[in-house]
């Protein structure tokens, strides 16, 4: 009887199709992958069964070709769900797509125009297991959205993380997080925010028009697994704009004499060489001043409950994700 019930409860997930591009200097080719939502949603863990996840209505994720949008609030069967966290899967729909960043670049276009104070539109990567984490309760591994880990040790699982962007329409920061052990990571990490670190109060929202889509390019400078620098470019309105600061050991105060040798560009590069999974995330909190308030941005106050009530359909839209050789994706 137990075996029969288990078969009824668990069935494979139907995932949205998602296209991205793999590029060389000779051009780009389309990869026909998929997206999968994390096993968790606001309010607890849910398990896939005969009642498949309704991506558009239940978690506000709408996918068309290479474009994906994430809605802030979804009301489904009487429950309200805030945000979403989704991963790119391989073409065979069995595993997470792994990206080895050193010596490569990643680009995508994002529309941040609807993202207010307290809402974080994040695109990042973590050293998640490519096959997820199968358990008795979650037997599908990556197909079931399991195995999440990050530098904040969410759910007790720690791993290196690179925040390609954490942003609202009021601030933008990119941050590297190393780990020195399976249970201890640099939770603060080393990041660059033009408002905070260069006192450039008009970069995000002035130099970069946050009311229009912008292409974000991140270059991982290095050879093999040896990472030396992470650069950032923005492309908008026919202009290519280089961020004033790159991430490197000198800026981060990593790896030198008297510094924690566990945290360095080399350590970050070694993690990238193992393979990182790309994460799209939208979430909200009244405690977001580290990102876009105080010395980090223009936000003066936070009221996420009000935002959810007045702007439940606000969304972030990602498109045209490309990965490949330096200067080949934009």
Automatic annotation (TrEMBL):
Keyword Signal appears in the UniProt entry: yes
UniProt keyword list: Carbohydrate metabolism, Cellulose degradation, Glycoprotein, Glycosidase, Hydrolase, Polysaccharide degradation, Signal
Annotated GO MF terms: cellulase activity
A GO BP entry: cellulose catabolic process
InterPro entries, alphabetized: ConA-like_dom_sf, Glyco_hydro_7, Glyco_hydro_7_sf
A Pfam family it matches: Glyco_hydro_7
Signal peptide: 1-16
Catalytic activity: Endohydrolysis of (1->4)-beta-D-glucosidic linkages in cellulose, lichenin and cereal beta-D-glucans
SUPFAM superfamilies (alphabetical): Concanavalin A-like lectins/glucanases
EC number: 3.2.1.4
Family: Belongs to the glycosyl hydrolase 7 (cellulase C) family.
PANTHER family the record matches: 1,4-BETA-D-GLUCAN CELLOBIOHYDROLASE B (PTHR33753), ENDO-BETA-1,4-GLUCANASE CELB (PTHR33753:SF1)
UniProt name for this protein: cellulase
Species name: uncultured symbiotic protist of Mastotermes darwiniensis
